[in-house]
Amino acid sequence: MSNKNIRVRFAPSPTGPLHIGGVRTALYNFLFARKNGGKFILRIEDTDQTRFVPGAEDYIIEAFKWCGIEFDEGVTKGGDFGPYTQSERKAVYKQYADELITSGNAYYAFDTAEQLSEKRAAFEAEKKTFTYNAAERLNMGNSLSLPKEEVERLLESGTPYVIRFKMPENEQVVMNDLIRGKVEVNTSVLDDKILFKSDGMPTYHLANIIDDHLMEISHVIRGEEWLPSLPLHVLLYRALGWQEPEFAHLPLLLKPDGHGKLSKRDGDRLGFPVFPLQWKDPKTGELSSGYREEGYFPEAFVNMLALLGWNPGDERELFDMEALIEAFSIERVNKSGARFDAEKAKWFNHQYLIKKSNIELAEAFMPILKEHHVLADKEFVTQVIALVKERATFVKDLWDQSFFFFVRPEEYDTKAVKKRWKAASYQQMTELKELLLNTEPFTASHTEEVVKKWIEENEYGMGMVMNAFRLLIVGALKGPHLFDIIALLGQEETVERISNGLLTLGKKE
RNA sequence: GGUCCGUUCGUCUAGUCAGGUCAGGACGCCAGGUUUUCAUCCUGGUAACACGGGUUCGAAUCCCGUACGGACUACCA
Length: 509
Fold this sequence. Notes:
With 509 residues, this protein is mainly alpha-helical. It has 20 helices and 14 strands.
């Protein structure tokens, strides 16, 4: 399907790292755009200058790059609808705010923050809810309640003011949400939201609808936390005489423990990352872990995230980006919030790890080997990977599963020794050493054949011999098929390990 | 408090729009099997329609109510 008129956007504010809920929102936007042959835009919403965090924007861009979520337009990418950073569009917003005032849909308000909070406190004391709208606006200090001359005087004298939306009185607003269907609300419970702040910047509400309109956004796909302000946004489109886009409000990602939506503050408290990439708070220096640094593959991360709140309707679970694009539809997004399961995330990573080629994994494993001061040939590492990859969830797990291929055991697992190093072991292993010394070729299948035959002929007992043998080679009772291990280690190393073991463990009386 | 949104196994979910298979799958967990060990793997099992009414021959599904959960309620986004 191709539809040039489909345009969606992801519009984060650069106040810190993006958490996985934000990544999912972006992902759904991206999938929707690709699926429908539309465009995906990245816009930075930095209208709150006090909350700017250095590095946040770069973080966001890098995170999407890692995930494989690509933008068609936006910051760093350019396009015909720029600039894509709201602070650079400052001049645009004022003119529409003025237009709303002229058309009678907005007004100037001079109330100070103190006056406002006093008013709220007074209402609360009487157990009433203060709503700055038709019910109370005439009791406040604004261009609707004050005489015209007074308003002009205040404006000219440079008194700080904001511009508020004049919420219609007692009007039923009917809206449609692609995920939830019809949503209705009466304007009497809505307030005259501030559209333009006294610092000369628009608020989110004004800026986002102006930009969405100017950038010709066709579908606004965002988090459910925006649903309560949907009526305001719809009314703004109507006041400006603009065609409103379609809306879809995504269910929230919930904290796996307790309650509430997942937030940036959850950091590492839950035992898993909430951020795609590691983040270092520039102020406190505090470090929060990221999926990338934890060892997740971006494909696994994206796959896991995509299935949190959406499903294809059949029983498939493994999707690469291309398959996600093919299968995605906004109609199949769930309504209810999803708690995310760290165990399932690991399972996804395991699935992607075993799908990767041995060579690819070997390359990823080489730096880890280096950290352990192991110098190994890539060809050898690749063969090792083939034997152990099914046991690993992360590339870093490979070390625990394969270290004995690279370093000789220096000590032997105490429990295993107790259980498997018996009176006859010393003699049997000594014989085995001689046997292997004279076995050619030293392949897995041939050594296996020879050793098994020797065990049978001497009636030594398979479990008895093999466990002791494994103990000497690995240092513990674990690991892949023993004959595969010794074939990779080679005859010389195998024999030496047996000799060392005999020396260390000695005879047991 | 007010407004809005939501509610199927412990978790993610299918099934709900067009009422009618022992409510299906996956993760986890448990058991068994395979194996020289551990892990993997295979097989099996565990476990849910929030509650109460109504409509109907029949309700997870439609309607009403209740409860619970969540979001929002800033000159933040």
